[in-house]
Amino acid sequence: MKSLLKIVLVLALLAGLGWAASGPLVRRWQASHRPQWRTAEVTRGEIIATVNSTGTVKPVLEVQVGTFVSGPILELRADFNQLVKKGELLARIDPRIYAASVARAEAALATRQADVENASALLEQAIRNERRALALQAENADFISIKEMDSFHFSRVSLEAQLKQAKAAVSLAEADLSNAQANLDYTEIRSPVDGMVIDRKIDQGQTLAAQFQTPELFVVAPDMKKRMNIFASVDEADIGLIQRAQQEHRPVEFRVDAYPDDLFHGQIEQLRKNATTTQNVVTYPVVVSAANPDLKLLPGMTASLSFQIAKKENILRIPNEAIRFYPDRQQVRPEDRKILDGTQEEETEIPESQRSAADRAEASRKRNHRHVWVAEGAWLKAVPVEIGLTDMKFSELVSGLLTEGQALVTGKKIPE
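RE: above sequence
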């Protein structure tokens, strides 16, 4: 009996020692198998929200220089990239036909002017004849009959009408001469503005036909060193933000492939209302104006633009990767698991396309109320937050029990 008791006591002692020794081992095993989390801190700084788009660089104004007359190009004085002044000769069309028309019109005008002089002389003679007849009639009524007086009178009236007709013919001849001279002047193609020739569409010796439509000879862009425009296409979902940015005079930054290390700056010049629909995608043209003192921006370049929508400085920022992180249910403390359950139910309950406009507007407002996760012992704890302005890396902390420097879980570490 005593031997059995001793055995029981020994076993009990060994069991107690084993239990006492197993506690640290269990805790050590649990610690070694506990998930290791990647974290990012809540920081203080600035957030700049942008809308990105692409556009095409164009001059502020493109003046298309055409011709009103036809004929072969006799002389070509302007070429690509040439700087020209207003009124400078760019090209000359063979003027022989038009010079002949001017000579013919001048001869016709001289003939009509001679007709005026002839009619004036005949009228003066008729006026004098009538005066002499009136003087004779006054001296003695029997000297001149009434029929003769009528002949003198109506001869004068007829010649007065002929003189008016001759003067009208002179005016018509002058108009013809002016038209012929204008056509002759049109054979000299001159620049209507100061600028740079960005396109030349003719060659010397080429024959132009302007009867049915005005041929385009040159394209001259004025003030390219002062400003250039970038025509961007912005999605309808972002056009409200662009409109607000224009009202607040917010800057636009862009780059072009030709100068990948240079950052260009501009301002929103216009938000045009002529929408374009391509494959059910609606876009609006937005015109951005930018300085171009070095002529780095050339017509036709593709620009990648970032419209600054809003900017806040010295605010608490949450890393976006912490907002996007959703843990597994078994890793979250029990009292917070309903958050994950509710999120999943909300996401799968009603498809977006079947919701009413009011429901979608309310859901859009609720998207700013989110949860981030912090490590609390072996579990993850949910912290409700409200976010505001967002950029590519951070979101503004509008409300929530977070402090600067606090670590937020962004994912699970992968064992090395």
